[in-house]
Amino acid sequence: MTDSLVSITGEGLTARINPHGAELWSLIDARGREYMTDADPAFWTGHAPLLFPIIGSVAGDRLRIDGREYAQPRHGFARVSLFTPVERGADRIVFRLTDSVETRANYPFLFELDMAFRIDGMTLAMMATVRNTGAVPLPFSFGYHPAFAWPLPGGVAKAAHKLVFEADEPQPVRRLREETGLLLAEPAATPVDGRELTLREELFKANAVIWDHLNSHSLSYGADGGAWLDIAFPDTPSLGLWQKAGARYICIEPWQGHADPEGFAGDFREKPGVVLLEPGQSRSFRMDVTVNPR
Q1: Which range marks the domain in which residue 18 is found?
Q2: Of 203, 212, 269, which Cα lies nearest the Cα of 237?
Q3: What is the pLDDT of residues 53-77, one digit of tens each?
Q4: Which of 133, 147, 220, 239 could form a disulfide with 110 if both were Cys (CB 3.0 to 4.6 A apart)?
Q5: Angle at 171 between CA 141 and CA 263, to 5 degrees
């Protein structure tokens, strides 16, 4: 699969993207330092899957739409679908996924999903755009799932890394039930101290840490004396953090939506966090990653 990776290069960065899933596999600076996961198969081979038309799990892995049920695996089908390049330049590329006989069998809607990547100096700008090409409202969620190197290149210890949010985040967080992947009703105390969250593997013993409503639209990830990533996500109200213990990555995941809450048995359109997009309309979700090397 690595032979199919497409590269874009700017003044300070090179990104490599896999058309399977339009998935960002690599982000390196001019000195060849990698800021993405090493994808060690002992932990997780993902890099940065796109989550569409669902985020996380739905109850029983079934979407409920107009009284019918449709099989839908965790995080949806975009991450395992082949996207087609529709625009290309040295420092930018746009991939597109459209509905097909296969997608409509389990998600009975017409759509286009464009995923654009562009390098501007030390920033990788990403923009996902969902278009409703059908005649009825399009229900969906969308999320990013990038796995960044933990520790970042630069020689600072893993234990020194932290997140610094744009705003204070005192609200409780949410957790998932390990067996089902569904969102627990009971909130948990926030691990954030003001604006700062010190990253430690113990945070993820109970699976992901989830904010269903975040005050911030940006954060910084890194370590004092080392490299930092500035991450902006102005169009997504929720955030997930996740890793597998011992792995050398941290997933920082801006979301529009989340997994089914436990006990939710309604139509997919009624699920919290689902967007209803009118025919002919589009909705975009931006994520910018700015690299500040050591």
Answers
A1: 2-264+272-292
A2: 212
A3: 999 999 999 999 999 999 999 999 9
A4: 133
A5: 50
pLDDT of residue 144: 98
pLDDT number for residue 206? 85
Q: What is the pLDDT of residue 2?
A: 61
| Tally of structural domains, the chain | 1
C-alpha span between 12 and 44 (Å, rounded): 28
User: Quick check: 178 and 207 in contact, CB under 8 A?
Assistant: yes
- Distance CA(294)–CA(290), nearest Å, equals 13
Report pLDDT for 1.
54
Tokens 């755009």, located at residue:
129
* Cα–Cα distance, 255 to 51 (Å, whole number): 9
Residues 25 and 18: their CA atoms lie apart, in Å, by 7
Which residue stretches of the chain have pLDDT < 70?
1-3
190, two tokens: 């926030």
- Which run of H or of E encompasses 105? helix 101-106
Taking the C-alpha atoms of residue 217 and residue 236, their distance in angstroms, rounded to an integer, is 8
Q: What is the per-residue pLDDT for 3?
A: 62
- Answer whether the bond into residue 41 is a cis peptide, omega within 30°: no
Q: Please give the Cα distance from 212 to 198 (Å, whole number).
A: 20
Mean of the per-residue pLDDT values for the chain?
96
Kindly list the distances between the CA atom of residue 201 and the CA atoms of 13, 206, 239, in Å, as whole numbers in the listed order: 29, 10, 18
Where b means 16+ CB within 10 Å and e means fewer, 176-196 reads beeebbbbbeeeeeebbeebe
CATH of the domain at 279: 2.70.98.10
Say how far apart CA 23 and CA 45 lie, in whole Å: 12
